[in-house]
TrEMBL record:
Keyword ATP-binding: no
Domain CENP-V/GFA, first and last residues per copy: 7-120
Protein name: Inner membrane protein
Presence of the UniProt keyword Repeat in the record: no
């Protein structure tokens, strides 16, 4: 059964703010690739339609590397990576939400799936 709820989140300085509908009963992704390890990402994925950037579009900086298929977005002021964007294998736009940046979320007890992104 889906437990999709609406959450608010954003960067540390508050300039980038968004809301997102996300099911936190589904496993979050803890990836060991070079960027996820260094930035401490804990990711939930949603279709673009479930994500709404409320403020800070002009403050977002894009970083890409490797195959340049994922946009690693961060606030130009505080440097926090609160979400990213890319496409699913079938070409649909999606958002990767750093659940650590959602307001009022208690991470203990949330299901986490470890992904070996380092080997990709």
């Amino acid at each position: 059964m889906s437990e999709t709820k609406r959450y608010e989140g954003g960067c540390h300085c508050g300039q980038v703010r968004y809301d997102v509908s996300l099911d936190l009963s589904q496993p979050l992704v803890s990836c060991n690739c070079s960027i996820c390890i260094k930035t401490g990402m804990l990711l939930g994925f949603v279709p673009e339609a479930l994500f709404n950037l409320r403020s800070g579009a002009e403050r977002i900086t894009d970083y890409q590397f490797g195959k340049k298929s994922i946009h690693h977005l961060f606030c130009a002021t505080c440097g926090v990576r609160s979400f990213g964007k890319g496409t699913t294998p079938d070409g649909k736009e999606m958002r990767a939400i750093n659940v650590r940046c959602l307001d009022g979320i208690e991470l203990d007890g949330l299901p986490v799936m470890k992904v070996d992104g380092k080997s990709f």
